[in-house]
Design goal:
Elements lengths: L10 H8 L3 H33 L9 E2 L18 E7 L11 E8 L4 E6 L4 H12 L2 H14 L3 E3 L18 H4 L4 E4 L5 H4 L4 H6 L1
Antiparallel strand pairs: 1-2, 2-3, 3-4, 4-6, 5-6
């Protein structure tokens, strides 16, 4: 079955936020699957196919949907369930997810729906490759791409940015700001709320 939208408008997650109990979620799990889990999987399959055709130089791995259960081991918040659903379309990798960027990340639920792409958290190997590319002529192309995306309403972000250019690079490098980043993502323009409820979300994300 193809993607037909997230018709619930977030109401399930508002209720889940008030009922953080296994008994409640177990009783309402079929509702979660119908309203969010199944549509997310269908949507990401569509996005995987669209991105695979659009980016001939990039191989993609199958889409992944994150578990609804929270990892509470290192958190003061022991709420067992997330109040959103999220998934992504990864680029091809041989090892950990942190070794490759993603073609699309999508979050639906509280506090809002949003989409992004890029490399959120680079491991040392990926970070070294990124910095080498920024420092040479490939960095000039990256600056042009980011400028074009910014004009279209995307927001350039990083999970962490150093206060100084990393050791081994010229502190006065023209792309010092990029060299200081330890990840690089772009958040999409705000998703129109009405788009979430129907098929229009799929072509919107693909564009």
């Amino acid at each position: 079955m193809g993607f037909e939208g997230f018709s619930d408008g977030g109401r399930f997650f508002e209720r889940l936020a008030r009922h953080q109990a296994r008994e409640w979620f177990t009783a309402h799990k079929p509702e979660f699957v119908e309203l969010y889990d199944a549509p997310m999987r269908a949507l990401l399959e569509e996005q995987h196919a669209r991105a695979d055709r659009a980016y001939e130089h990039v191989d993609l791995d199958p889409p992944k949907v994150f578990r609804i259960h929270r990892d509470t081991r290192f958190s003061a918040d022991k709420s067992p369930y997330k109040t959103h659903i999220a998934g992504y379309v990864p680029t091809r990798r041989d090892g950990k997810a942190t070794e490759a960027p993603i073609a699309l990340y999508l979050h639906v639920g509280l506090p809002r729906a949003f989409a992004a792409a890029g490399h959120y958290m680079m491991d040392p190997v990926a970070l070294a490759r990124f910095r080498a590319a920024v420092a040479d002529e490939r960095g000039e192309a990256l600056v042009r791409v980011l400028a074009a995306l910014t004009k279209k309403g995307f927001t350039v972000e990083s999970r962490e940015t150093l206060k100084k250019v990393p050791r081994g690079f010229d502190p006065e490098h023209p792309r010092a700001g990029l060299l200081a980043r330890k990840g690089l993502t772009v958040s999409f323009p705000a998703i129109p709320p009405e788009t979430l409820r129907g098929r229009a979300l799929s072509p919107w994300l693909a564009r």
